[in-house]
What does this fold into?
Amino acid sequence: MNREIAALAALLSALALFLPTRAQTFTHVDVDGLAIRMSIAGGGETTVVFENGYAQPLETWGRVQPEVSSFARTVAYDRAGFGLSEVGPSPRDGRQIASELRGALRAAKVSPPYILVGHSLGGLYVRAFAGMYPDEVAGLVLVDPMHESEALEASSASPELSSLRSTVAQIRARAIPFGIPVTLISAMGAPDVPFTTRRMRASSTQRRDERLADSLANGTWTRGVGGRFIVTHESGHNVPQEEPDLVIGAIRDLVEGLRARP
It folds into this structure.
């Protein structure tokens, strides 16, 4: 499984070179001596923060962030050790990553509350952030997130993946407070990532039973926190590239819902 993720991450990093970034502004901020690259765009009272999947650069949101920036302030960034950000200290668990993200947002003078959008492994990290800093979170959009059971089965020399057991323990210890709006998108379609290989497509198809189990588990968790559960058969795991309008729509619904509150 980890070899597939790493290979896909490499493909997405190459794909990122072709994504539209001309309208984006890039900056580096200092977080305890660590240089973190960020892309900040848009404006308004609502701030949407994107958290990447494993080993993915911020450009993986290149089909989502520009559109969301038309109705909200947006922030995408490279997690420490990936993209053009410096390697961060160990352990690379949810607590450390959430703390670094909060430090980067403060250094960039981007104030809460935030709508956090996490894809894949990033779904666990935004849950960790919400558990640690609930007063700073206005909502969550989880885009085909890694489920806790899948995280516990992962093993790798990668600092992030080898810290997954700690990350799961942390998010279980600090659950998302009831009342924070949550939308979870579960992708059950065949992958259609540019430049992907037949072998990777076949592997994803063979894992359909496993994917279905994860989807059912995510649905149970989402309903348990009073959230909205969306299943799509139009895209595979990489929903931000394959079906960006679905992600944009889910974010827009949350933003509009927050604006409609008294």
Notes: Residues 2-260 form a domain with the Rossmann fold fold (CATH 3.40.50.1820). Residues 1-10 have pLDDT under 50 and may be disordered. The radius of gyration is 17 Å.
